[in-house]
């Protein structure tokens, strides 16, 4: 297995096609069939390939500041982590998460953040589930337009501290879209 860190603007046609097949097969009919992102392009991707150079896993990364209870935090958001169905349960998801940990360590990142329907993989890798009041920019994924601000208590949020900073319960302004 090998992992490549690829800036979104460097993804070429053949890789884009492979990623499109992976994300649509992983996330189903609700995922847009004409692009490799759901709401917004990530800044960077980690792409995992096997010995035959076939794409078997990926995750998008979004780096930005957020406002947590009036304090700015530097956050690396994980978007659409997925592994080819035939290669699941081989530790590829955990491999990706370990690579992200190593990537973050020397950088000014306070927390890694994600939204998960199934917390099991992330819990095994040191992520903690939290419930918090969130505010974010709402995007209609079909028309790709801003439709307003969302405010609600979110229970699917998971975080991992990178440099020992403690996550404070309370209000989180994502200062952008919801992954």
Automatic annotation (TrEMBL):
Query: In what residue span(s) does the N-acetyltransferase domain sit?
Result: 1-173
Q: In the Enzyme Commission scheme, what number(s) does this protein have?
A: 2.3.-.-
Q: Which GO terms describe its molecular function?
A: acyltransferase activity
Q: What class of enzyme is it?
A: transferase
Keyword annotations from UniProtKB, A to Z: Acyltransferase, Transferase
Which protein is depicted? GNAT family N-acetyltransferase
Origin species: Sporosarcina siberiensis
